[in-house]
Amino acid sequence: MIFSLLLYFVILLVSLLLIIVLVGFFLPQTSRVSRSLVIKAPKETLFNLVNDLREWEKWSPWYSIDPNMKITYHNGGVGKGASYSWTSDHKRVGSGSLAITNTTDMDRIDTELNFTGQDPGQGEWHFEEVSGGVEVTWVMNATMGANPLKRYFGLLFDRMLGPQFEEGLRNIKREAEAA
User: Fold this and answer.
1) Phi/psi class of residue 52: alpha, beta or left (left: φ > 0; alpha: ψ in -120 to 50)?
2) How far apart (Å, rounded) are the C-alpha atoms in residues 168 and 37?
3) What are the chain's domains?
């Protein structure tokens, strides 16, 4: 009796785990977070707040989490090819690097974000003049790969990063409109 209940429980548990893994293979391999905000400031000011990595200390939500993180700038810290790396003991900040991989006039900035031990994320910044100001859009794309557990994590990507993107955009607004 006890053996049959135990066997039934093991079969049920294995079946459940198998279903979770199989469903994971059908989840999207990529995740995307995107937030926008219209800001009443010159496009050049907004572009430069993102294109100059040293300016990120003024508005990035991660600086407020750990203002003691150690930052090293590379290649001047401005424009295509510029990057910075950081180390932090705070679990929500961790360590990694961010590089500007491309810029297009005053319209777009592409970045690559690397957290230690994770696959890189591809970032995009768009600056579009609209009625009432400039719409600034911050995007992050991440590949979850073939790992079904990472794909489940991808379902939470927007919920986890979206509020931080919104905070960053509000901080950019504050900085740019005060300038």
Assistant:
1) beta
2) 10
3) 29-178 (3.30.530.20)
* 170 contacts: CB under 8 Å, gap ≥ 6: 37
Q: Report strand pairing: 121-130 vs 96-104.
A: unpaired
Side-chain-facing half-sphere of 84: CA atoms under 13 Å: 19
pLDDT in tens, 119-143: 788 999 999 999 999 999 999 998 7
Structure tokens at 2: 């006890």
Q: What is the pTM of this model?
A: 0.82
**Long-range CB pairs of 66-75, under 8 A, 24+ apart, other chains included:** 66/90, 66/92, 66/93, 69/93
Whether residue 151 contacts residue 18, with contact meaning beta carbons closer than 8 Å, is answered with no
